[in-house]
Amino acid sequence: MPWTRISSKLKQVAKATLNPAIVRKVSQFGTSSRQFHSRPITISQPDMKIRLVPALEDNYMYLLVDEETRQCAAVDPVEPQKILDAIKEENCTLTTILTTHHHWDHANGNDKLVKLVPSQKIVVYGGDDRIPALNTKVGHGDQFKVGNLNVKCLFTPCHTTGHICYYVTSTSGEQPAVFTGDTLFVGGCGKFFEGTPDMMYSALVTILSKLPGNTRVFCGHEYTVNNLKYALHVEPENTTTKEKFTWAKEQRANNLPTIPSSIEEELKTNPFMRVDNSAVQKHCRTSEPVSTMGFLREEKNNFRG
Ligand SMILES: [Zn+2]
């Protein structure tokens, strides 16, 4: 979905939240809407529902619900109580925790969430032994189900050596979703704490770029405005990036998330996804994609805009 369509969709959400009935629903979500850095929003389609649950300063947790069976998965549930409130509102059954990587602001709620739902066995997926409560370690290409939804694991090491992205599809063929943790952000990517530019090239270009263009991207942090500011430093003439930057600032001014994006939008605007593009390479004074990736990361680390 082009970002302009998402934009109009989110404007509808913004309008809808002015409706008193829905405002009540938002404020009942958790103890107070003020405890969130953004308004919690829900993306619904006939086969699956995804609730964005803001956490900490700028993290996003997610609740993925299979509409057919009402089974659900929590993605990076660092604040378990907020996830439990969302589960209660959805009246669904938690079967699964999807952990993108071991960093505390993603994985530290696992133990508590498992203990708070003692009635059933929760399968805790992840690709790293450092993840708390991990009971099912996965690798690239592994597949499993959440209700009737298919989840495929994409091994994307670099930010950490055990980072996994989760690609979700349904048999009805509606828009897929991918949970990208701290590998792919809207307009940017995670720092290379445990990896090299060629590892991030493999994650972003070889793996994530090849997903269908309409795949919705749900990432781990609200970093979009700063990321797009840097993207415009790299490509000042990119009109799609300019427009998306304006839109993102407007969203944040209204306390709304800039998530989800789509693979198609990222390919048009995210410099780290565009290291094969000649304008991006020219900025980095190289014609080689992996060196371009390395240059961008270094420059972004020191970028103050
Ligand atoms: Zn991280």
Question: What does the model show?
Answer:
This protein has helices at residues 3-16, 20-28, 80-90, 104-107, 110-116, 197-207, 224-234, 239-253, 263-269, 278-283, 289-301, and strands at residues 41-44, 48-55, 59-66, 71-75, 93-98, 123-126, 136-137, 143-146, 149-155, 164-169, 177-181, 184-185, 188-189, 216-219, 261-262. A hairpin with a 2-residue loop joins strand 12 (184-185) and strand 13 (188-189). It is globular. The protein starts with a helix and ends with a helix. With 305 residues, it is α/β, with parallel strands linked by helices. The strands form 3 sheets. The chain has a 7-stranded mixed β-sheet with strand order 1-2-3-4-5-6-7, covered by helices on one side. It is built from 11 helices and 15 strands. Residues 101, 103, 159, 182, 190 line the site of zinc ion (ZN). InterPro entries: Clx_II_MBL, HAGH_C, Hydroxyacylglutathione_Hdrlase, Metallo-B-lactamas, RibonucZ/Hydroxyglut_hydro. Belongs to the metallo-beta-lactamase superfamily. Glyoxalase II family. Residues 58-221 form the Metallo-beta-lactamase domain. It comes from Magallana gigas (Pacific oyster).
Which SSEs are present, and which pair or pack?
Elements: H1 3-16, H2 20-28, E1 41-44, E2 48-55, E3 59-66, E4 71-75, H3 80-90, E5 93-98, H4 104-107, H5 110-116, E6 123-126, E7 136-137, E8 143-146, E9 149-155, E10 164-169, E11 177-181, E12 184-185, E13 188-189, H6 197-207, E14 216-219, H7 224-234, H8 239-253, E15 261-262, H9 263-269, H10 278-283, H11 289-301
Parallel strand pairs: 4-5, 5-6, 6-7, 11-14
Antiparallel strand pairs: 1-2, 2-3, 3-4, 8-9, 9-10, 10-11, 12-13, 14-15
Zinc ion (ZN) binds next to loops.
